[in-house]
Amino acid sequence: MKTNSEVQIRDPYVVPMPEEGKYYLFGSTDANIWGKGTGFDVYVGTDLERWEGPFPVFRPGEDFFSEENFWAPEVYPYGGRYYMFATFRRRSNKLLGTAVLAADSLTGPFQLHSDGPVTPVDWPCLDGTLYVDEAGQPWMVFCHEWTQVLDGEICAVRLSADLREAVGEPVVLFRASEAPWVTRLDAKSTDAGDVFVTDGAFLHRAEDGTLLLLWASFHENRYALGFAVSASGHIEGPWVHEPEALFQADGGHGMLFRTFDGRLMLTIHSPNRTPNERPLFLPVAEQGGRLRLADK
Prior knowledge:
A hairpin with a 7-residue loop joins β8 (96-103) and β9. The protein has a five-stranded antiparallel β-sheet, with no helix packed on it. A four-stranded antiparallel β-sheet has the order 6-7-8-9, with no helix packed on it. It has a four-stranded antiparallel β-sheet with strand order 10-11-12-13. The chain has one helix spanning 146-149; strands at 2-3, 10-17, 22-28, 40-45, 50-58, 66-78, 81-90, 96-103, 111-112, 125-132, 138-144, 153-159, 166-175, 199-205, 211-219, 222-230, 239-241, 252-258, 264-270, 278-287, 290-293. The protein is mainly beta.
């Protein structure tokens, strides 16, 4: 059994299973996520404080298309199975991309479902997240990385019904610099231009129907988490940014879920430094289609 202070994890993602009374905690679990990829593990707990595990849920075979940078697994129930959206660095061109894996159980084993990444082959992309719209159309929202465009983008692309491939061309939802709370990342900005980071997108439909998009970037060179609101209520936006970040204390890459007693909970990793990153669980309140951190 491990406590949160003992769990090294980035990009935490929680799947609550009320019928079991258990939470399944996924994330980037390699001790050095910047190097060779080992795979993904899951932790299982009942109170968001103590966890059994880690239990292996994915390990790559020798013919897997990537061998480094295994990041940000998100797991969704869909069509009677569980689908994992995760980021990997391709062997072929060394660009990051999000691929889809599948399993019959939350504890795996997850196996490659898509034909490699479903993000554009010539784009460096990461942190794909699944969104199913009002018509039942699945989308993947993902980050087009600053390493290619300098001003990082949040993009969306339709997926086939079986989640195996992208359908059509990606659309840009917004760029990082459009958010008032985002500042340039000094450590990466060069004569080529200022760098603005997009990271860790996640969609949330508020109780009043408002569509929100959480995402991470940097504020005064510290990792931070903010959100935007879709003015139309649809994935295409336009997206209106909150002026202030929701969390600014060196933490981000968040997602929202409901606890078994009905509370809305945000999980992020903090600090944003390896090997010190740990999962945080922060109660959140909805007010008029907006989010605020709530008292515990």
